[in-house]
Design a protein that fits this description.
alpha/beta, Rossmann fold, four-stranded parallel beta sheet, disordered N terminus
């Protein structure tokens, strides 16, 4: 394969954004769905997926706050994963860009579980419930996701 074909293949390959939170139940799943919805609409060749650092701390499929916020934005649930999933090193390796929802919450968890990766994460500052309400947190996540989509589509 010549250099032009290799470059074309690389640019045609979808790139992946990994959103990380604690339970993979609320914030990261919202970010994943918003990202995938808008990337699909804009035909940006990126996809998002999400994982948690402590999925055992959450119960259920998806936070009702996330379901309601996605519904209000007419974003289908198909844009988020099939359920809560624990972060693995393979997930980190298979992502082009990695974002944890809250530095104060997730940096120490990353250092404990994946110390070699902790400095390779972009940490946002969107606290979990009960420290911040979903009414404040989810629009901030949405804004950050939209800024990220603008950045990668340039």
């Amino acid at each position: 394969m010549d250099q032009r074909s290799q470059l074309s293949t690389l640019t045609d390959t979808p790139r992946r954004v990994l959103f990380i939170c604690t339970g993979n139940f609320y914030r990261s799943r919202f970010a994943e769905a918003v990202f995938n919805h808008h990337a699909e609409q804009r035909q940006i060749p990126w996809t998002a997926f999400s994982r948690g650092l402590a999925v055992h701390l959450a119960e259920g499929y998806l936070s009702s706050f996330t379901v309601e916020a996605l519904g209000a934005r007419q974003i289908e649930l198909r844009h988020t994963g099939p359920g809560r999933m624990q972060l693995s090193e393979e997930d980190l390796l298979k992502s082009s860009y990695r974002i944890a929802m809250d530095r104060s919450e997730h940096l120490q968890m990353m250092l404990a579980q994946f110390p070699a990766w902790a400095a390779q994460i972009d940490y946002w500052d969107v606290s979990d419930i009960p420290y911040r309400s979903s009414i404040d947190a989810l629009p901030e996540i949405e804004l950050k996701v939209m800024q990220l989509l603008e950045k990668i589509s340039r």
